Structure formats: C-alpha cells, structure tokens
C-alpha cells in the first residue's frame, strides 16, 4: 500500500476541490430509492425489529439464530468466547453436523421428496436430486472417503466443475469431519500443487473435465501434473466422469467416482462435531507468494450462512427456486450454494456452463424453464449482459423473479438500474412489465467474513442503486480514518468491523501471525477489511473499492469505482476498468480501459467524448489522461477484473502473472488492439 490509499481527512478527498468535489459528491449521492411494496413487506420473512433486537444484544441474537436455524447434536452453553482476540469461539461447547443439518433432518421432517438440486449441464443434460436422494449420495460419498482412509480432521482437495458432485463432495467431507479445500478449476497445476501442499491434503476429488462454450475442457491432467513431482501427501484421486474424454490413469492411486462412491453403502450416521471444528479452507485469489488459506469452522459459519440466506433473499423455501451463479471454487459457491440453501431446505438450480453457451440467452432460458425466483450473481455478469443488449433477456419470461442479488464488487447505479428494469421488471416475453419490480440486494462480504455482512433486507429497506446500504442485524460495521477514529457521514475511510461475528475466519491455515498481521494489526481491536467505504447522509454504506485500487492524482483521492461508474453511465460504454498509473508530476494518472457497445465503435471522437463525459460526471480532475478502447477486460474466473495486469499495461511494463485469468488470451488481445 504505497499510496495514501483513501480520502480520510474529515473534509474527505474533496478538500478545496470546488466543483470537482461537488460533482464527486453528486455521483455518490444517489437520490433514487425504491421501498418494498406493501405486499412484499407483509410477506417478508424478516422484519425491521431484528435490527433493534440484535443491537440490544448481538450474541444473544446470534444464539437465537443458531438454535432456530440449526439442529444441534449437543446444545451450547457459551455463545461467544472472545477472551483471546482475534481468536473467536462461537457456540464453543456445542456440537453439530453440517451435512445432517443440510440433509438428513429435512428428510426426517418429511421433506425428502422436495427437490434440493436441479442441475443443468452446459450441453443441456439435466439431473435433479430430491433431499432424500441427495442425502443418500452424500452418505455413500462419506463411506467411500472413509474407506480411502480419510478421517476427521484430514484435508481433502477438491478440483471440480460446477456439477452436483461438487456439493456432494463438500457435504460428505463435512459429514465425516474432513476439511475441504476447494481449488478453483481455473487454477493451474502449480497453483493446485501449492494448495495441496499447504493443506497437506490426503485425497483429491476431481473430474475428467467439464464443458466450456460447447467444447470439452480438461481438469484431470492438471491434477496429474500437480502430483508428478514426489513429496506430496495425496494417497488417492477420485475422478468423476463428466465429459468422457480420455485421461491418464495411475493405478492404485486413481479411482472412478462411480466405482468408489457408486459401490459404497448408503447408510452412514452423522455424528456431532465441535462447533469450532474446521469446516473448510479456501485460498484467496490474487495473492502473491505463499497462498493464504482462509479457515472457517462449523457452528458460527453455518449460523450466519443460514440466517443471511433467509433474511437477505427473503427465502420462502416451500415455493422459491433459488439460483446462485457462483462457482464452487470461490466463497459464494461455498456459503450460498453448498451450505446455506440446503441448510434452509431450499430448492436450487446449479448450472455448469457459461452464460453465452450455446447462445447469449442461456441464463434467461434457464430462469424461464426452472421458474427461478431468486437470482444471485455478480455485477460483471450484469454488465456483460448489458453489452449483449436488453432484447436478449426480453425474449424470455422472467416473471418468476422475486429477488435479485449482487455480489463481488460494487455495482454501479447504471448496472443496478438495468438489472432492475430489464430483469427485475420483466413480466413476460412480450415486453410486459411488472408494476413492482423485484428488489435488488447488493451484498458486501468477503472470503474472510464467510457470509454476507452489509446488504439491504428486501422487505424492509428502501433500496438505493449502487449502495450495499445497511450492516446486517448483529454486524458492527464502521468507517474509520488513519487513526481508527470513526469518520462523519459523507467522508471516505477504511471499512472495519468492530465486533466479532459468527462466520468470521478463524485464521489463516498454518499461519497465526499472518492472520493477526493482515487483519487485526492495522487498527486496534478492529477487523480491517481492506476496502474503502463511506456512509452517506442517510447512513447508507457505499463501498469504494479495495484501498489498494484507490488512486491519488495531484493530491486528490479518486476511487476507481467512481470513475468506472461514470464511464459506464455513458451510452457508448459497455464495460470499463480504471487504474492509477504512476506519474512523476501528479503521483498517479487515471488510465481507463473501455469496451464499447456495438453501436459506438465507429465514433472517431469517442475518447474525447468519454473524457468530457467523466469531466461532466465527476470533474476535470477525474478525466482519464488515457482512454484505451479494448475488446475484452482481463477477469478471473470469479469475474473480478485484474486491474494489476491493466496497470502493467498502463505503466508500460511486461504483464505480470496472468495465470488466474478466466481466458488467458485476453492480455494478448488487448496488446494487439493497442498496437493498431
Ligand atoms: C469486494 C466475495 C462492493 C470487496 C464475496 C471485498 C464488494 C472483496 C462487494 C471480497 C459488494 C464483494 N460491493 N465490493 N457488494 N462484494 N466486494 O473474498 O472489495 O472474493 O473486499 O468475496 O470483493 O472478495 P471475495
């Protein structure tokens, strides 16, 4: 963090900036508000009173949720032990089983015939699992893993595509107390190996491959490559047959899923594990050096996962069909695909492929087909769909949609409004509109927080485009300056969390000191999230991007998010990414990479037009010095723009490690487009 990262003086980044400052304020002073309809509010599962209840006694509030939402093998007597910060224990002497909570108890409660998972493969193959069927599969997988020598506390590396076996594997591990470590399918063999080594995994669960844009895409070869060099801890590799491609086989080590799991007994008793028993490790992306394994445990994590999933999506499990588009390789696919929906007894859709295969209407086709009522996706996906055009979702009946969620990065007001109008208000394929569009919940959280932390409640909050709005009940969020003092509304600062929360990370695997240094040493007794934020005059939270993405231009502090938001608000721009490039005179300059909408490509003056547009939206200081029109932006498989690579381009350096890109030809395409 070499730059003074964010506007933190009481006067904010707009100090004496005159009209610039005013304009900056205006952009983040969103005046539109959309209160819930009376009908939605009346049926909402969570009421406004929960804020006051949680504020009066947050641990008591969480204890109530823990007992109300989960079934315990052994009840707890102590809610929170914070005697040794930053190491929290929630529900410490309680015992429970995550898989029992996600599966068996629903069957015991007569919900065995409810569909747990609808699966749609990219080629169009389908499967569905009732709760009874899913329970049986997980029991078999638990028996299979145990017979391969996996015991409580052992680590299992998971390198799978988005198929039901991914969820089955995670729950089978949880059932036997093994700790899963999912490695995203987009990571290389080297990255997989370093994660296997760091966690000392005993078993790897993978697939021959998957499908990407109509073509088979391999996974097993990366596992083979990762395990070529000796010295690893892996005894067995279980391989799901998914795309049927030929794979190399190591006798004695490799087993087909169908043999190992298919042949296992269907009876397995779930025993209670301690509430603080490790549930999973998930390595955070984008870090350099040794991978950082974020550790989550059982009772607190599941409590907050289940509560937020119910409250933020207003879940009615008897009638809703829920779809989270996240891959199991990142935290959203853990909390809001593998765990929370099943704990809550919901019916969910899992889709294997990309949104444009075989056509750009695939997602909307799926929503129409399965009558999806809750959609949870990322702003980058929304902006991609904007780029493809509103007529594509317009061809489908999306009237089943009730709640729309967003996660992963700030959603600019432009994309928010598009999401509302084009998806949330769609009442049929002939252009019919709902009077009362589906509420949008913009959810802020992190791998480290385990579950949502800041989000509107759709039946309670009047939503505001671009703001994640309100800390959830029982969550103590603040914005502070360099010294750790709370800043007034309207001022930028660092987002912190003042009190422990149930789903908080319990550490970094094998590195206590790094956990303390990274999150708890910047400010005394506060969790440092690494994000810039501010409260607006209504007290709503605006996320301003990672503090390391914030630029400092001529002493003015500018957020990449604000400039991107301004660029995307221009009708010619489909997507934009902004970086600060080092500059001798001004500290940094603003460099923007933009993807134009089809209709705008021929406008020769587009760069001038856009600079002026940003000047108008924010102020002259924010005008990008350079605007580069590019065909694509470099993104990770979880959809995050890799600004680090763009910064390399902007600063004329060789492009650094691009191994985590979803499509590694993108940097090449950008380089070529800039030569022209
Ligand atoms: C960013 C994803 C603004 C933020 C769940 C955070 C967001 C990082 C939002 C965590 C949001 C996530 N608005 N920014 N609604 N959600 N972020 O660990 O910078 O992949 O620190 O977890 O994403 O990313 P992670």
Automatic annotation (TrEMBL):
Region (Disordered): 1-22
Domain Acetyl-coenzyme A synthetase N-terminal: 50-102
An example Gene Ontology biological process: acetyl-CoA biosynthetic process from acetate
Record-listed E.C. numbers: 6.2.1.1
Domain AMP-dependent synthetase/ligase: 111-509
A GO molecular function held by the record: acetate-CoA ligase activity
GO cellular component terms, A-Z: cytosol
Alphabetized UniProt keyword annotations: Acetylation, ATP-binding, Ligase, Nucleotide-binding
Gene3D superfamilies, A to Z: 3.30.300.30, N-terminal domain of ligase-like (3.40.50.12780)
Class of this enzyme: ligase
Cited InterPro entries: Ac_CoA_lig, ACAS_N, AMP-bd_C, AMP-bd_C_sf, AMP-binding_CS, AMP-dep_synth/lig_dom, ANL_N_sf
Highest taxon above the source species: Bacteria
A Pfam match: AMP-binding_C
N-terminal signal peptide: none
Domain AMP-binding enzyme C-terminal: 562-640
NCBIfam families: Ac_CoA_lig_AcsA (TIGR02188), PRK00174.1 (NF001208)
Family (UniProt): Belongs to the ATP-dependent AMP-binding enzyme family.
Name assigned to this protein: Acetate--CoA ligase
């Amino acid at each position: 963090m070499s730059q003074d990262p964010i506007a933190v003086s009481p006067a904010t980044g707009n100090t004496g900036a005159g009209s610039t400052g005013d304009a900056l304020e205006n952009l983040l002073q969103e005046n539109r508000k959309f209160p819930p309809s009376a009908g939605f509010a009346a049926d909402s599962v969570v009421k406004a009173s929960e804020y006051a209840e949680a504020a009066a006694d947050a641990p008591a509030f969480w204890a109530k949720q823990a007992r109300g939402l989960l079934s315990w093998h052994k009840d707890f007597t102590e809610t929170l032990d914070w005697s040794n910060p930053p190491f929290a224990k929630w529900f410490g002497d309680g015992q429970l089983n995550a898989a029992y909570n996600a599966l068996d108890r629903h069957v015991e409660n007569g919900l065995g015939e409810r569909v747990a998972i609808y699966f749609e493969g990219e080629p169009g193959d389908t499967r569905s699992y009732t709760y009874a069927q899913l329970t049986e599969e997980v029991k078999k997988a638990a028996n299979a893993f145990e017979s391969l020598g996996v015991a409580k506390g052992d680590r299992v590396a998971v390198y799978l595509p988005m198929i039901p076996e991914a969820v089955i594997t995670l729950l089978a591990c949880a059932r036997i107390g093994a700790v899963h470590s999912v490695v995203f399918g987009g990571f290389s063999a080297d990255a997989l190996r370093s994660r296997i080594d760091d966690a000392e995994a005993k078993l790897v669960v993978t697939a021959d491959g998957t499908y990407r844009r109509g073509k088979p895409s391999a996974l097993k070869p990366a596992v083979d490559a990762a395990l070529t060099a000796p010295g690893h801890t892996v005894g067995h590799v279980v391989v799901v047959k998914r795309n049927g491609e030929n794979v190399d086989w190591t006798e004695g080590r490799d087993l087909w899923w169908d043999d190992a799991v298919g042949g296992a007994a269907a009876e397995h008793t779930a025993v209670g594990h301690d509430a603080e028993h490790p549930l999973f490790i998930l390595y955070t992306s984008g870090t350099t050096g040794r991978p950082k394994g974020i550790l989550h445990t059982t009772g607190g994590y599941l409590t907050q996962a289940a509560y937020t999933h119910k409250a933020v999506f207003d879940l009615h499990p008897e009638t809703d069909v829920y779809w989270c588009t996240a891959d199991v390789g990142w935290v959203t696919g853990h909390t809001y695909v593998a765990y929370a929906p099943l704990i809550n007894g919901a019916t969910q859709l899992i889709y294997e492929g990309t949104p444009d295969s075989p056509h750009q209407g695939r997602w909307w086709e799926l929503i129409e087909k399965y009558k999806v009522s809750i959609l949870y996706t990322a702003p980058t996906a929304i902006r991609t769909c904007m780029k493809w055009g509103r007529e594509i979702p317009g061809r489908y009946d999306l009237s089943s949609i009730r709640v729309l969620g967003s996660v992963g990065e700030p959603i600019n007001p432009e994309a928010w409004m598009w999401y509302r109008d084009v998806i949330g208000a769609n009442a049929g394929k002939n252009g019919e509109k709902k009077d009362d569009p589906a509420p949008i919940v913009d959810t802020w959280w992190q791998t480290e927080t385990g579950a949502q932390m800041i989000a509107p409640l759709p039946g309670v909050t009047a939503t505001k485009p671009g703001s994640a709005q309100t800390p959830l009940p029982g969550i103590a969020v603040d914005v502070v300056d360099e010294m750790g003092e709370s800043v007034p509304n309207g001022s930028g600062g660092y987002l912190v969390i003042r009190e422990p929360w149930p789903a908080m990370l319990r550490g970094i695997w094998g590195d206590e000191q790094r956990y303390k240094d990274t999150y708890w040493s910047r400010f005394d007794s506060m969790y440092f999230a690494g994000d810039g934020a501010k409260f607006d005059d209504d007290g709503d939270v605006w996320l301003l991007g990672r503090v390391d993405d914030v630029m400092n231009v001529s002493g003015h502090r500018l957020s990449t998010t604000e400039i991107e938001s301004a660029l995307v608000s221009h009708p010619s721009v489909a997507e934009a990414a902004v970086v600060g490039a080092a500059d001798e005179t001004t500290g940094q300059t603003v460099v923007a990479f933009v993807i134009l909408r089809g209709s705008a490509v021929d406008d020769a003056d587009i760069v001038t037009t856009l600079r002026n547009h940003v000047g108008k939206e924010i102020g002259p200081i924010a005008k990008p010095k350079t605007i580069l029109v590019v065909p694509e932006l470099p993104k990770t498989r979880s959809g995050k723009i890799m600004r680090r690579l763009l910064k390399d381009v902007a600063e004329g350096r060789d492009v650094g490690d691009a191994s985590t890109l979803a499509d590694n030809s993108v940097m090449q395409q950008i380089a070529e487009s800039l030569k022209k």
